[in-house]
Amino acid sequence: MSEALRVAVIGQGFMGRAHGLGWVRAAAVGDGPLAPELAVLCGRDRGALEANARRYGFAEWSDDWAGVVQRDDVDLVDICTPGASHAEIALGALAAGKHVLCEKPLANTLGEARSLARAAEEAAARGVFACVGFNYRRVPAVAVARRLVAEGRVGDLRHVRAAYLQDWLVDPSFPLTWRLDSGQAGSGALGDLLAHVVDLVRFVSGDEFAEVASVLETFVKERPLASGEAGLSGTKASSGAKGPVTVDDACAALGRLGRGAMVTMEATRMALGRKNGLVLELYGTSGSLRFDLERLNELLVYEAGASREGFSRVLVTNPDDPYLSQWWPPGHVLGWEHTFVHEFEDLMAAIAEHRQPEPSFADGLATQAVLDAVSRSANTRGWEKVDTKGVAK
Amino acid sequence: MSEALRVAVIGQGFMGRAHGLGWVRAAAVGDGPLAPELAVLCGRDRGALEANARRYGFAEWSDDWAGVVQRDDVDLVDICTPGASHAEIALGALAAGKHVLCEKPLANTLGEARSLARAAEEAAARGVFACVGFNYRRVPAVAVARRLVAEGRVGDLRHVRAAYLQDWLVDPSFPLTWRLDSGQAGSGALGDLLAHVVDLVRFVSGDEFAEVASVLETFVKERPLASGEAGLSGTKASSGAKGPVTVDDACAALGRLGRGAMVTMEATRMALGRKNGLVLELYGTSGSLRFDLERLNELLVYEAGASREGFSRVLVTNPDDPYLSQWWPPGHVLGWEHTFVHEFEDLMAAIAEHRQPEPSFADGLATQAVLDAVSRSANTRGWEKVDTKGVAK
Amino acid sequence: MSEALRVAVIGQGFMGRAHGLGWVRAAAVGDGPLAPELAVLCGRDRGALEANARRYGFAEWSDDWAGVVQRDDVDLVDICTPGASHAEIALGALAAGKHVLCEKPLANTLGEARSLARAAEEAAARGVFACVGFNYRRVPAVAVARRLVAEGRVGDLRHVRAAYLQDWLVDPSFPLTWRLDSGQAGSGALGDLLAHVVDLVRFVSGDEFAEVASVLETFVKERPLASGEAGLSGTKASSGAKGPVTVDDACAALGRLGRGAMVTMEATRMALGRKNGLVLELYGTSGSLRFDLERLNELLVYEAGASREGFSRVLVTNPDDPYLSQWWPPGHVLGWEHTFVHEFEDLMAAIAEHRQPEPSFADGLATQAVLDAVSRSANTRGWEKVDTKGVAK
Amino acid sequence: MSEALRVAVIGQGFMGRAHGLGWVRAAAVGDGPLAPELAVLCGRDRGALEANARRYGFAEWSDDWAGVVQRDDVDLVDICTPGASHAEIALGALAAGKHVLCEKPLANTLGEARSLARAAEEAAARGVFACVGFNYRRVPAVAVARRLVAEGRVGDLRHVRAAYLQDWLVDPSFPLTWRLDSGQAGSGALGDLLAHVVDLVRFVSGDEFAEVASVLETFVKERPLASGEAGLSGTKASSGAKGPVTVDDACAALGRLGRGAMVTMEATRMALGRKNGLVLELYGTSGSLRFDLERLNELLVYEAGASREGFSRVLVTNPDDPYLSQWWPPGHVLGWEHTFVHEFEDLMAAIAEHRQPEPSFADGLATQAVLDAVSRSANTRGWEKVDTKGVAK
Lengths: 393, 393, 393, 393
What we know:
globular; alpha/beta; 17 strands; 2 domains; 32% helix; homotetramer
């Protein structure tokens, strides 16, 4: 019989919904030592709260996160709020002895990220664990990519080409939601999209960024004020009033990894026609890999010395592929949501075994330090070293 | 507040699991007039039954389907057993006044399919509805394809090219599971795979098959006897004993639709490298379409007269696409499992509105009549007309 | 110093032009024992003849093919006329002791094809050789496909899926050119397109067709009369008068190869959006292959047992690939025209070495016998055996 | 009757051969006011010279370029030598009143490029024209891309993503050919590959680079000395001796165009598996485009507001597409070599009409100025403005 893991989810927006449904799935497919229980859903919009909680099957709901993180009947606090509130909630939860899963980016500033990494390290010593929600590590094809690199099948990396391309801001009449407000979101494409790129490059390459040169851009300087809650799509502006966009629409960087690979990377919400194009290419001395999130069941693999060299389109849906044994016969493809189920399973397995889940807050800090260097370089217009202070070696 | 729809799932194999998890999802995302309740899970393997039922959240479990279909606290019987038992269970459930969802193929013989269609028609007159589980109709890209054809965007159909290609029987040491036994499965690739092809052609084209010429083939005539339950992959044979394969490994047919389109179609479990390649191509006088289940979020669309003619890779993941409003921002792709959620939603909507859900048992019969003509043609080695006796016009 | 091979090209239409330019290229890149000399261009349209001859560099021109094939200063007669005249010209040329290259299909009837194969066999005994112009055998990727099958890398073939899809007849106002007149063209998609399919299946599989079941269709029964010469595209009809289309727009067939593989194949000029889609798929017990003429530099290769199984997109442009050593660095792609250069090179090498070039007229006959069975089956509406009378074993 | 244009080709290496064969083709297909005559082939390797000249059909050959550019019976000097000798030959030819076609990059230094642009401007005033051989402008799909941008179909450009990826230097035992010697080649991937990228971005966008930030890298610092002539592939080193690589293996840059688009671009000979991957992506406010040289007959086009939005794979092979009217029916694909035929045709048309051919030496200089800024930035490690001195507005 599995032991229960009582989960409080903080936030009921896009990520709150993705996590809520993810926990439902994790409970239904789970075979591990811990069985998730949807204990409390926490959100500010009281109007939607009860309906959401009932739909996903949460036993209770609340608009008081500070109280929730103190409850004895909560084991894990799952933070799905905008970045500005991550630090306060996560620090509170860790102090209360709760395991923490925090959505990415870990924080809006490098200083906050450092505090969080330090707090997480201290909590771990007490058996309380923290984890960042870089869910794309849990795409099976990405896990295979990492394994191929780790096994040396790719050889020494020469080039990493990565991008996260979306297009939902091309229309200048798209309204000014919280994601376009630096006070809440910290940054734009940088923290929302490039954060995923940086984490994936670190995860798959097994290497760290040493330095970067970059540019940030806001193509549309002001936008109509939004009315009420707004998602990533379909939100309509309500009046003629406009406000300033205070985050970047797009960012791009050159970079260098510690072992010498050249990196080009960029993120944008302005690449018309690319809906969710997180593309990662790695070129090594004996193999190359390519992944595209819009085709997340596939990995392109090139192996030097194969009898017929070419990029193989590998459908990563076999039962012996990572995460796949619990799912379906080959070719019955997974979707974006499965990444959350896998994330929760990995987290629960680590908690059950009293070991640090990955990516840790130290990982979150390492990524944040790269984003910080990207920000600095956009100002100094020169190469900036990644500040590794506080980043675990 | 939604009214409850109490569901009994019969079967806990591959399809039983897919439906179980599907109902969990449908309950968690649902916003419709009916709220599914997982009432009873019914299966023969008592050892696995309780664990499965608890995992998916069924309130009860039973190994007595005949009793279950009579229970007052069951509204819908969802049949996920091999084809040989479909008729008995479905007829029992309809007689007991339960709505029925029956996995495809509707039956193993045309006669059984006719009985079922007749029973369903009578039940419908009493407000009791039956539906066949051709879940690929619920792929959003397929729904878009149908709409484009219905709107006349494709013009008059000239060619339909369709195939369902899998490869799990290439290895001659793959064991003799129930799917290779005509007594249980009725047929092989024909009823398992070509049934999907036929249903999709009917659904998307809006037309009916008039006649076919075909061939069936069993490449590997005998296989090792299986030990215990066996899935579609990974099952190992246990001893040296072998038994005869009594179903087809592959089938192919030429066909003609009522309004004149030429059809070529085939299904096989022997197409090495194709894992779940259900491919549908339609060529009309003003447009063409292509769909591949391995990339189920995509539809290729060619429109004559577009400013630049070419096959557009349309990512069918926008909120205004069929089924998509409840899911995620554009480009956050769905998986194979979502087809079941959509199927259940459509079914519940129809039941709530007291109208016939689709595909009806009459649709199931129409498809069965095509499969029957394919079977006959493989024997007569000539063209065979589709026998439309009992098929609703 | 290479010896000269003096070439007379008969015909100055689409194929005459392709051959003319091909001989120019072959002369410019050639390094073989024979050096082609463009001796005579022969055509009926005297108005265009001189300009064409001068452009390609032919030394002379004539509208009298019967005289040309008798000339002492001609070594090879290259026949690029419609199928109806192939037999007379080829027989005349062989009788005059000239090597012959004859465009496909070899003839419009099986009887003519038999006569030609017999005449070619007799001529070969005298050191005079004949060859059919199935140029797609000379696509490097196709040559690699054949080699992989011959080396056993694909194992036993289970399925062949092949099609040649074009769309230039979708528009019912496309005029009635010679290609739509059975008197001149013999047949439509059958002899023009399916002939290529049949030859490629034979060439790549190394196997022969045993029997077929088929259908032929003419969707547009009459078309505007054409004015003057008409090509495959862009020709405009000149008046309101119409005439009957006497060839097939499309054909499809099921088939069986001698060693047991199932075949589905079709050819059409009505597949809107497919411009030159000659697609060949082979599925064997240890490997699979896919080729598409619209991407003629690529071959998709699946090998069971590779470290990561998937279809590799192999760019067949390396110097050690067939025909490639004379061309460019990897990735500098070839075009459709190169197939003619390769065809002429292979032919010249065979002539220089006094051996039978391939595909021989016996090959042409073997393909014709399959087309004939397809034709018969479309009438009998049953399976028809391929008549191998006169086909060399 | 066309007037003759007497061509002297200087160089008989990779580019000399491509041009030689290109002129042969241009002569055979040509229908323009000028008819090329292959007058003189000029090269240093006397052993190969006569055979090459005879093969392509040059009337004469010489190892004295200085004499050749003075000959009265030469109208056009086509320079196919390494970059180090471009300036001297081109200046000599222009001074002698010959039209000049010069392979890219125009020169190895910005200073030389300025001199050449000035000389070309002066020559143009005398009716003597100069042109740079950026042949990829002549890919039909690229010409369509430019037209779509020029017509405003793409809207305001937001992002340009471009790369030229090859892999022939991955193997550290590949020898030290002239292309790896800065004395002869000037630079590595920068001048050889990024030059194409920069020219294509300028050509398609219709905009100019304002500034760049960049990095250059030489991964393999020394290589075996080559013996004799060496091509891009297949060359073997002859002894154990090594020498230093004095050019870059790879380069990458961020950039900004004058009207505000962000650019990321890179070029490398170390991207294992990418043979000739010149990829250009443009994202605008109303449309997006993607081109890949390995599939040079295709253009991906995304148009906002199309009935079904998606990237259309447009096969640019229709008779009404740029350059296509002289070739084949739709879908009969062109190869890399056709770019040279188109280049020569455009050049001859301009000369015949006494107007400046494009890209002019001023264009060559503009591209060189961007490459120069890339070089400087790699040293200063900061953003560098493009020096437009001497660049025509």
